[in-house]
Amino acid sequence: MRRLVVLIALAVAVVGGGGLYLFKREMVMELYEANILGYGVAKTPDECVVRFNKAIKDRNYKMAAKYCTKDYAEQLVKGADAGKQLGNAIDDLTYRMEKDGVMTKEVEAILYYNDVFPKSVTASLQSATDSSGLATFTTNEPSFDISKAGVWEYDTTFTQGFYYGQPGQVKLVKEGGGWKMDFPIGPATRERFNRVVAVHMDYVNAVKKMSDEVRTERTTKEDVSKRLKELLGEAVRAKR
Questions:
Q1: 7 and 78 part of one domain
Q2: Are 7 and 109 in the same domain?
Q3: Is 37 left (phi over 0), alpha (psi -120 to 50) or beta?
Q4: CA 10 to chain centre
Q5: CA-CA distance, 235 to 208, in Å (whole number)?
């Protein structure tokens, strides 16, 4: 709390009667992000990996972008709000279903594939030198065989829109004074980000509706699975 008070004081401090701020807004935000949120410049490859993981778990894709090279970072910033809304909705539904004892492996898998960047995806530092590094990605993918899930509708350009198609290993490089992950990006990746931005609210509304129904109605695992299948199907087929 004391650090926050100090930062606020710095933000409003002025020089003499000229009314000039000591720190520009951008500098104050950098101080806040680094000292309060824990997203400072990655001075080492390990800091880059740890802070990127933290941002993904926090659903804070704007902060995750700080630890990625320019092209992929721009996409993360563009999709940050959409990804956070859907991610938070999925997290809330997961919590409610687990609390009410109606979560199934099938639904767990469906939510995993419709998440823009699953929280179970984790980077670990594989190797590093003074000028380069390598991070390996692993994920606690649901054990349910999705091929046995019956007929679930998918938008293949939407599912895992921020992560799909990325390699299991990503280079780390120095850029802009800090260490960054160098995710490859091409037309297909940009298309997926654009798709998430364009249609995410259809999925957010579907997941929130399911969450509300779990909270307010007596239901069974079978009912939840059937209803979520209906709602996500409507999201896939929504006219835009």
A1: no
A2: no
A3: alpha
A4: 31
A5: 12
Do 167 and 204 touch, CB atoms closer than 8 A? no
Three-state SS for 79-100 is HHHHHHHHHHHHHHHHHHHHHC
Per residue in 38-94, pLDDT tens? 789 999 999 999 999 999 999 999 999 999 999 999 999 999 999 999 999 999 999
Judgement on whether residues 132 and 91 belong to the same structural domain of the protein = yes
Cα 235 from chain centre:
20
Q: What is the pLDDT of residues 88-132, one digit of tens each?
A: 999 999 999 999 999 999 999 999 999 999 999 999 999 999 889
178: number of Cβ within 10 Å: 16
Q: In residues, how long is the chain?
A: 240
Split into its structural domains, the chain has a count of 2
Asked if 104 and 132 sit in the same domain, the reply is yes
DSSP 185: -
Q: Do 157 and 68 belong to one domain?
A: yes
Single-letter amino acid, residue 47: E
The rounded distance, in Å, linking the Cα atoms of 104 and 118 is 17
**Rounded to whole angstroms, how far apart are CA atoms 225 and 143?**
17
Instruction: Determine the residue type at 1.
Output: M
**Domain containing residue 14:** 1-36
100 and 26 housed in the same domain: no
- C-alpha angle with apex 216: 196 to 222, nearest 5 degrees? 70
